[in-house]
Amino acid sequence: MKRSSVWRAYSYAWITLGFFIISLVGHWVFGWFAYLDEQRALGQPPEFGGYLIEMSRDTLENWQSEFLQLLWQVGGLAFLLFV
């Protein structure tokens, strides 16, 4: 019996995780530049605490809207089809 490696057996999950990490890092990096521009336009010094709060809020807001919608579509449809 041939054993496959963890990388090959879960390759789809690893690729998905890679895309997730790249997009999350990109979101936070470009968010930093947007935050700097906003603070500069307001004449305020950039503070990491303010950036952290703003980006955390934006990230959780995106996850809430996307994941809850997806969970409802998949879970709700599966439940309603089952019933």
Question: How would you sum up this structure, described in words?
Answer:
The chain is an all-alpha fold and 83 residues long. The protein has one domain (24-82). The chain contains three helices and no strands. It has helices at residues 6-9, 11-42, 48-82. The longest helix is centred in the C-terminal third of the chain and has 35 residues, at 48-82. The protein is flat. The mean pLDDT is 89.
Q: How large is the radius of gyration?
A: 20 Å
One letter per element, helices H and strands E, the order comes to HHH
Largest sheet: none
With helices defined by DSSP (H or I, 4 residues minimum), what is the helix count? 3
What form results from the Cα inertia axes?
flat
Counted up, domains total 1
Q: What is the end-to-end distance? A: 41 Å
Beta content comes to under 5%
What is the averaged pLDDT score? 89
Quaternary structure state of the chains depicted: single chain
Would you report the number of β strands? 0
The portion of residues assigned to helices is: over 70%
| Structural class category | mainly alpha
Unreliable segments (pLDDT under 50, ≥5 consecutive)? Answer: none
